[in-house]
Input
Amino acid sequence: MDDKLFLMIPGPTPMPERALLAMAKAPIGHRSGEFAKIMAEVSENLKWLHQTASEVLILSSSGTGALEAAIINACSPGDRVLVGANGKFGERWVEVAQAFGLDVEVIAAPYGQPLSTDAFKAALEADTDKTIKAVVVTHSETSTGVINDLETIVGYIRAHGEALSIVDAVTSLGATSVPVDAWGLDFVGSGSQKAYMIPPGLGFLAVSERGWAACERSTMPRYYFDLRKYRKALKKNNTPFTTPVNLVFALQTTLQMLRAEGLDALFARHARLRNATRAAVRALGLALFNPDDHSASPAITAVVPPEGIACDKLRATLKKHYDIVIAGGQGEMEGQIVRIGHLGFVGERDVLTAIAALEGALHTLGYDGFTPGSGVAAASAVLFG
Output
């Protein structure tokens, strides 16, 4: 059946109909007073979602662009930085930092395991000369289904006194609490196609006063991603370059929806869907790539398929028979895991449908290591029990 495809991936995520309709409106001038009023509302709601009194910049980019912008505005060539890497995205920030000539020290953990907070503490406390200028941490590592202990790590960064925190919150912002001001975060980047529930194309970056001071000190070459331009334009409720007007229409709508839901309910929903998905996976006799519930990402659950069932075959069966798309592995986990997204505009019905489809696909492929209906029953017990 046409037009029934449903995304259960870490992004792009499903979109609410009212956001789609908002995007269908005729564009207006991005320098007009009418658009400035929309941007003013959007800016206030972005501050609410980020739990900050500081500006949240809007960039025409992906989340990767937002993080690159943070790195090149926070640092100068040759600066020493720590970068946490326990998945594909942490490794990406290592590559970005190296591309700009930074002195990169990697704090690594195996795929599927959280970053060691003690390793950050040791490295920062050993830096008595205060040569570490920034620490880059991926909060929710969706390549593996792990959420890192950002609050603890940032506590050590703040105790260092000199280093800035640069946070990849691309799939955690809006899915779990990221209180920018309370935790003292300096640069926090995210992307529109995740919990914001709109298409790819916008990057967001919250910047602290310490971060702005670093922007002034930075000698890194920059033009389009010079954050000072964005701050100046935002004072007039605009951006320094052409704004994707219709994406902002959609963002205005979804931020209204998120605000109506409320922060506590929003975060609780994502936690509930994660817990239900993990319970279902266990009930089906499948292995969770990250078996530790404490460090499980609220955005996605990584699953190891049964022996003899190829990841690509499982994903293809779900798409062919049920019009449901789940993600494959990334980096060294390509062909080793599948990833079930539960991020953004996703509710109980969606997770139950995906689990029922997963049961059907596993049965079709010859796996009989579960009692039919056990996955749905386990998820239902979490959601409604």
